[in-house]
């Protein structure tokens, strides 16, 4: 096995695991839990889910599905953002599934890792990567972004519920 295959397989394993734990946490919450935040300056799970979904849209859906970027990042962080538990669950599932699908596409086409998918597109907004970034660098940034915020989601869920029930199958 070469390093590219090993790297992509490892990312897929980690993202699938992260997807499982995050969806299990959200599944145990109520609508009230989804919009709760620990302080007036903190993000709710609704904010975090909206942010992950927005990042996946602007960084992956735009290139993979050729969908115009219609992200409103400021709205993702509005206090009192309304979202039901079911909406949070579905948005999270779709964001993970889209990211995994794009990684699987890259795994089946390894030379694309060095492509520059945003090079001839409008300037990226709200991104830690520039238009000259490679697909590899983009996925590294997305991996970090998703992991960071799903950790916050699970932590907030534990704050609300005390203890979560995990299915290890």
How would you sum up this structure in a few lines?
The protein has 169 residues and is an all-alpha fold. The protein is built from 6 helices and no strands.
Structure overview:
The model has no long low-confidence stretch (mean pLDDT 94). The protein is built from six helices and no strands. The chain is globular. α1 packs antiparallel against α5, α3 (45-64) packs parallel to α5 and α3 (45-64) packs antiparallel against α6. It has helices at residues 3-27, 31-35, 45-64, 73-76, 85-108, 135-161. By secondary structure, it is an all-alpha fold.
Which secondary structure elements does this structure contain, and how are they paired or packed?
Elements: H1 3-27, H2 31-35, H3 45-64, H4 73-76, H5 85-108, H6 135-161
The percent range for strand residues is: under 5%
Biggest sheet overview: none
Percent of residues in helices? 55-70%
Structural classification: mainly alpha
SSE order, one letter for each helix or strand: HHHHHH
Shape, please?
Answer: globular
- Mean of residue pLDDT? 94
Distance between the termini: 27 Å
Rounded to an integer, what's the Rg over CA atoms? 16 Å
Spans of 5+ residues with little confidence (pLDDT < 50)? none
